[in-house]
Amino acid sequence: MENNEPTSIIVDCDNCNARVQAEIVASFADTNSDDLLDYINYLFCRCPSCSSPILLQQEYDYDGVDLFWKFKAKLYPNPSFHINPVIPEQLQKALIESIQCYKSKANTATVIMCRRTIEGFCSLKGIQEVNLDKSIKRLRDEGYINEQLFEWANELRLSGNEAAHNIGSEFSLLDSKDILDFTIAILDFTYSFKDKFDKFKARRAS
């Protein structure tokens, strides 16, 4: 690495289940493109606590003044869950907390956090009905989610209600993982695939 490059980076270590200041052992920039925004940078890092290897991918971004590297993905270890960076920051934070609950095997807490995330999703879309049931129906009726995602969101609501109000309810690790997967899929569809498809249709129409 060049002298002006950073020597460490904050990243989650899956082995330690903690956020660490990982040492950057080596880096490689793939600049095989005429477009600077297509450049990719790879960081090979080492956890300071357990010495586990971590491979990160960065991409160029432009803030109107400067070009800079920003986080794109963790390539190794392959994460169990991927949070799309286009998802709003508030919802990303809720998902991260949900994932932390899951990794701690706090299954009921995972389910409750997923329900809270869906409530936040409704709120960011300007939908705040008297209850989550009606809010999810409005998400569907206004075209934010399709019928399949509506079914998933409704199951999340029901599971979240059970987790929050029924002291005798139990959720397995697989149950909580499925619910977390469904929550991520709903947000990924809305903020990535649906927006991309809508822009594609508008571009073709013009």
Taken as a percent bin, the fraction of beta residues is 15-25%
SSE topology string: EEEEEHHHHH
Q: In angstroms, what is the radius of gyration?
A: 20 Å
Shape: flat
Poorly predicted runs are: none
Largest sheet: 5 strands, antiparallel
Provide the helix percentage.
40-55%
The helix count comes to 5
End-to-end distance: 46 Å
Mean pLDDT: 88
SS-based structural class? alpha+beta
Strand tally is 5
Going across the biggest sheet, name each strand in turn. Answer: 1-2-3-4-5
Account of the 3D structure:
Helix content is 46%, strand content 22%. The protein has 206 residues and is α+β, with helices and mostly antiparallel strands. The chain is built from five helices and five strands, in the order E-E-E-E-E-H-H-H-H-H. The chain has a five-stranded antiparallel beta sheet with strand order 1-2-3-4-5, with no helix packed on it. Helix 1 (89-103) runs antiparallel to helix 2 and helix 4 (147-165) runs antiparallel to helix 5 (173-205).
